[in-house]
Amino acid sequence: MSQSHQVAPFDYIIFGATGDLTMRKLLPALYYRLTMGQVPDTARIIGTARSPLSREEYQGRARDALKRFVKADDFDEDTVERFLDMVHYVSLDGSKAESNWDGLREVLSHKADEHVRVFYYATAPDLYGAISANLAKEGLVTDDSRVVLEKPIGIDLKTADEINEGVGKFFKEKNVFRIDHYLGKETVQNVIALRFANPLLEAVWSAEHIESVQITAGEVVGVEGRAAYYDNSGALRDMVQNHLLQVLCLVAMEKPASLEADAVRDAKVSVLKSLVPLDKDTLRNASVRAQYTAGHIKGATVEGYLDELGHESNTETYVALRAEIDTPRWKNVPFFIRTAKRLKKKVSEIVVTFRSPETSLFPARPGRNVLVIRIQPDEGVSWSFNVKDPTNDDFALWQSTMDVHFEKSFNTRYPDAYERLLLDAVRGYPVLFIRRDEVEAAWKWVAPVMEAWARNDVPMAHYPAGSWGPEEARAMLARDGQLWHEDME
C-alpha cells in the first residue's frame, strides 16, 4: 500500500515534456514531493519532446514553471537546485521510429538496473500505441517498466480499445496506469473513509434512507486556450465518462473486501455494469445538454461559446444526466451528474439528500438532512440537520449546519492530485488508477447518450454565462421532486 515514506530511485521519462500539463502539473507535483522527502536525490526526470533544446535550456523552462506554479512560500532556492539537478532532456519524437532514440538510451543506460522506470505519456492519446511500439523496438521497455496514460482514453469504445490494445502489446496490464486526476484528490479518496470508517453513515448509505445524490463539477472559466480540443470533445467526453463516473463509483460501490487495488476496482466495475442504460425513450427526460451564451461573471461581460469558438458548433458545454443503479442498495434512487463551463461559481461536490420521516411529531415537516462533500475548492464536509428553534416555545424546527474545512482542521497544505498519483506509479500501487474494464464499462454506458445527441434527439439548450445552467436541468430534477444544491440554499 502507498505510504508517505521515500520511494525507490526512479527514472520518470515524460513524453510531451514541453507541454502545458508537464509544466503546470507534473514538474510542480514532483517538486512538492521532493520537499516532503519522498523523492530520493538519485531520481531522474527525463523530458522528451520535439523541441531542439539543450538540457540547460530545458532546466531553465522547468525553473520558470516552478516559479509560476509553486506557491511563493514553498519555492526554496536550495530545493529548486536539487530538483533541477534531477532534470534531463532529450530532443525526440516518440511517435517516429527514426528519431533520437540513441540519446534516450544513453541517458537511461546509467543506473538502469537500480531505478524504477516509468514512462509518462503527456501527448495526444492517438500517439500512445506508436510510442509504446518504438520504446519496445528500441529495447527500452523492461519487464517492470510502468506506463502512465493521460486521459482521454479514446473518444468512444472503439478508439479506447485501439489505444488499450496498442499499449497492451508492449506493457503488461498490471504495469499500465491510466490516470484520472480526480481519483488523486484527497477529498475524493475521503469518500471511502467517510462511508466505511463511520458506522453511522455506513448504516444509512442506501435507498432506504437516501433520497437522491448529486455529483457536480462546475467551472467559472470558459474553454480558454482549449477551444480546438474542447469542441472535438465536449463536456460529456471531457468530464462525465471519466471523472464523474469514477466519483459515482466511489459513492455507490459495495464495501470492497480490502483496500487492495483489484478489490476496490472490482467494486467500481460492478457499479458501472449496474448502471441502467439510457436509451432513446428515456434520454429526453434523463439528459440535458446546453451551451453558454454571453453573460456576466464577477461584473465582467463574457462572450458566449460560439463567439469564443468563432463558428457554429453542436458541442455541449453543459451536461446533466439522471442515472440509476440497478442494485438492491440503490433501487430507484436518482443520481444526478452535472458538469459545465461558465457557471456562476466554481464548485466540485457530492450532495447526498436523505429522506425525511414519513410522519412527524412537529408542527412543521422537518427539513431534509443533507450531506455535502466538497471536492474543491474549500475542501471539506458539511451536514445540515434539524434542531429545535430556541426562539420558539412550540417545537418549531431550525435547520442547522455543521461544517468541517479540512485545510483548517488539519492545518496543512492540501496536495495537488498529481502528487500522489505520480509516486503511486513508482510504487506500483494502482488502486487510484483505472483498470481497462472500467474504461470499457464507462464508454458503454455513455455511448447511447453520445449517439442520441448526435441525432439531435435531445435539443440543445442554452444558459447565460454566470448562471447555474439551463432551466431544463431544473425541470429534470423537479420531475423527481428534487432541487439542485444551490436552489436548496
Automatic annotation (TrEMBL):
Pathway: Carbohydrate degradation; pentose phosphate pathway; D-ribulose 5-phosphate from D-glucose 6-phosphate (oxidative stage): step 1/3
GO molecular function: glucose-6-phosphate dehydrogenase activity; NADP binding
Keywords: Carbohydrate metabolism, Glucose metabolism, NADP, Oxidoreductase
Glucose-6-phosphate dehydrogenase NAD-binding domain boundaries: 13-190
Active site: 243 (proton acceptor)
Residues reported in the UniProt entry to bind substrate: 181, 185, 219, 238, 341, 346
Binding site for NADP(+): 50, 151
Keyword NADP listed: yes
Reaction it catalyzes: D-glucose 6-phosphate + NADP(+) = 6-phospho-D-glucono-1,5-lactone + NADPH + H(+)
Hydrolase among keywords: no
EC number: 1.1.1.49
Cellular component GO terms, alphabetical: cytosol
One Pfam family hit: G6PD_C
A single GO BP: pentose-phosphate shunt, oxidative branch
Gene3D superfamilies, per the entry: Dihydrodipicolinate Reductase, domain 2 (3.30.360.10), NAD(P)-binding Rossmann-like Domain (3.40.50.720)
All residue ranges annotated as the Glucose-6-phosphate dehydrogenase C-terminal domain in the record: 193-485
Family to which the UniProt record says this protein belongs: Belongs to the glucose-6-phosphate dehydrogenase family.
NCBIfam families: zwf
Record function comment: Catalyzes the oxidation of glucose 6-phosphate to 6-phosphogluconolactone.
Protein name: Glucose-6-phosphate 1-dehydrogenase
Gene: zwf
